[in-house]
Specification:
The complex is a heterodimer of chains A (108) and B (116).
Chain A lengths: L3 E4 L2 E4 L5 E7 L7 E6 L6 E5 L3 E2 L7 E6 L2 E6 L9 E6 L7 E2 L3 E5 L1
Parallel strand pairs in A: 2-11
Antiparallel strand pairs in A: 1-3, 3-8, 4-5, 4-9, 5-6, 7-8, 9-10, 9-11
Chain B lengths: L2 E5 L2 E3 L5 E8 L8 E6 L5 E7 L6 E3 L7 E6 L4 E6 L8 E7 L6 E2 L3 E5 L2
Parallel strand pairs in B: 2-11
Antiparallel strand pairs in B: 1-3, 3-8, 4-5, 4-9, 5-6, 7-8, 9-10, 9-11
Classes of the chains: A mainly beta (108), B mainly beta (116).
């Protein structure tokens, strides 16, 4: 099973700042990597699939990059609604989907 | 609008059972592989069960194999998870999610609490 590791665990940021979240796979997953946003009491929301393709309706401030084992989610200018937990998930070898442990983006 | 609406869940004693349901609207469930993902308190996301569009190919995580059963009724646009022999570590929010590789749509979640 592929292990996904996210860093940092918590990112304390101010609105308007640029946030960079990292995700590393224990072996290559090609470009088969998705990112989700998860807020308390809500369903997870797909942001990115195929490592860099934004899902329908996702604002352009969210961008994904990387391939193989190293991936990045960048939020170019944090808005108040972006403070949440973000998960990466590989689907190169599935099932199962395997998720990272999450990065919490909170308000500094 | 594409939606997954969940029901079921609740408080159950150790060893008990529940049936979780997930009703699809705005799209045809039969076209998609479907999944159940859970999140235990203060933990991350874990895929526990997955079923192919025709119901033939099924996956269970080792943590639930033999205790949980995933099923679907494509005619009724619905997905189910029968959970039995529940343990404290099964306490979690359970989400249904659409998709083979990644979750393109998710239900709102239903809480399962296992406690005496």
């Amino acid at each position: 099973e592929i292990v996904m590791t996210q860093s940092p665990a918590t990112l304390s940021m101010s609105p308007g700042e640029r946030a960079t979240l990292s995700c590393r796979a224990s072996q290559s997953v090609g470009s088969n990597l998705a990112w989700y946003q998860h807020k308390p009491g809500q369903a997870p929301r797909l942001l990115i699939h195929g490592a860099f393709t934004r899902a329908t309706g996702i604002p352009a401030r969210f961008s994904g990059s990387g391939s193989g084992i190293e991936f990045t989610l960048t939020i170019s200018s944090l808005q108040s609604e972006d403070f949440a937990v973000y998960y990466c998930q590989q689907y190169n070898n599935w099932p199962p989907w395997t998720f990272g442990q999450g990065t919490k983006v909170d308000i500094k | 609008e594409e939606q997954l609406v969940q029901s079921g869940g609740g408080l159950v004693q150790p060893g008990g059972s529940l049936r979780l349901s997930c009703a699809a609207s705005g799209f045809t469930l039969s076209l998609y592989r479907m999944n159940w993902v859970r999140q235990a308190p203060q933990k991350g996301l874990e895929l526990v069960a997955s079923i192919s569009s025709n119901g033939v190919d099924i996956y269970y995580s080792d943590s639930v194999k033999g205790r949980f059963t995933i099923s679907r009724d494509n005619g009724d646009n619905s997905l189910f998870l029968q959970v039995t022999s529940l343990r404290g570590e099964d306490t979690a929010m359970y989400y249904c999610a659409r998709g083979g590789g990644y979750g393109s749509a998710w239900g709102q979640g239903t809480l399962v609490t296992v406690s005496s």
